[in-house]
Design goal:
Blueprint (H helix, E strand, L loop, with lengths): L3 E4 L7 H9 L4 E6 L4 H8 L5 H14 L4 E6 L8 H11 L2 E5 L40 E2 L4 E3 L9 E2 H4 L7 H8 L19 H9 L12
Length: 219
C-alpha cells in the first residue's frame, strides 16, 4: 500500500509528526500552497493571521528532515498574480511542484469553493469533449459516512453501504448512466457534444454561483 499524505503543513514542524513521517515515510507528502505572501495566502484561507507563517514553518521543518515533499500550487483569483513567485519558492527549496488551476469541489462534496476560480485560467481549452467515463462502473467514491456514489462530484443519489451492503453497489451503474447525460443540466444548448465539462461538475459550478466561463466554453 502506497500512502500519499496531503496537508497544509501547519503542523509539520511538530516533533512527533516529524518522527512519524521519518520512521514510517509515505510515498510523498503533498503540501498545498495558496500564495507567495501572507496577504494572498490568508485571503484564501480566511483564517486568523499567522497561517502563512505556520505553513512556512512546517514546510521548512519537513524539508530539513528529509521528508519526500511536493508542493501543489493552487491557483485562485486571490493569488494568480503570484504563480511565478510560488514556483520560485519551490525551486529555492529544491521541492518538486505542480500547478493546479482547475478548482474542484470540497471533500464534503460541496461546491462553494468553485467561486475562487481564477478568471485567468482558461478552462475551456483544457480537455477534449466529454464523452462519458466509467464513474460508478470501474471506480466509485465513498464518503466517511459510508455513502457510495459514482464519483466525488456526482454525490447524489448515493448508496448507503451500512444498509445496502456491497450488493447495493450494483445500482451505481444505472445512476451513472443518468447523471452523465446532459439532459437537465444544459437544456437548450445545441452544441453539447463538444463540451469538455462533465455534467456533475456543471451542476457543482452552477450551485456555487461560479462564472459561466469557468465551465462552459459556449458561453
Amino acid at each position: 500500500m502506497l500512502i500519499r499524505l496531503s496537508t497544509n503543513a501547519s503542523r509539520l514542524h511538530q516533533e512527533e509528526t516529524l518522527r512519524l513521517l521519518t520512521d514510517f515515510p509515505p510515498l510523498h507528502v503533498a503540501i498545498s500552497l495558496y500564495g507567495a505572501t501572507a496577504a494572498a495566502y490568508e485571503s484564501l484561507t480566511r483564517t486568523p493571521a499567522g497561517t502563512f507563517k505556520r505553513f512556512l514553518r512546517g514546510l521548512t521543518a519537513a524539508n530539513e528532515a528529509g521528508i519526500n515533499l511536493r508542493l501543489n500550487i493552487i491557483v485562485t483569483k486571490h493569488n494568480d498574480h503570484q504563480v511565478a513567485d510560488m514556483e520560485a519558492l519551490a525551486d529555492s527549496l529544491g521541492i518538486e511542484h505542480f500547478v493546479y488551476g482547475r478548482i474542484t469541489s470540497t471533500y464534503q462534496g460541496t461546491g462553494e469553493v468553485l467561486s475562487a476560480q481564477s478568471p485567468k485560467v482558461d478552462l475551456r481549452k483544457r480537455r477534449d469533449p466529454f464523452t462519458g467515463c466509467n464513474a460508478g462502473k470501474t471506480f466509485f467514491h465513498v464518503d466517511p459516512l459510508g455513502r457510495a456514489s459514482i464519483c466525488k462530484f456526482g454525490r447524489v443519489p448515493w448508496i448507503q453501504l451500512q444498509q445496502d451492503s456491497i450488493a447495493g453497489m450494483g445500482q451505481l451503474a444505472a445512476i451513472s448512466d443518468k447523471l452523465l447525460t446532459r439532459s437537465g443540466t444544459c437544456d437548450g444548448c445545441t452544441i453539447q457534444s463538444s463540451c469538455s465539462t462533465c455534467p456533475p461538475m456543471v451542476a457543482d459550478y452552477r450551485s456555487a454561483g461560479a462564472l459561466e466561463d469557468f465551465f462552459c466554453q459556449h458561453s
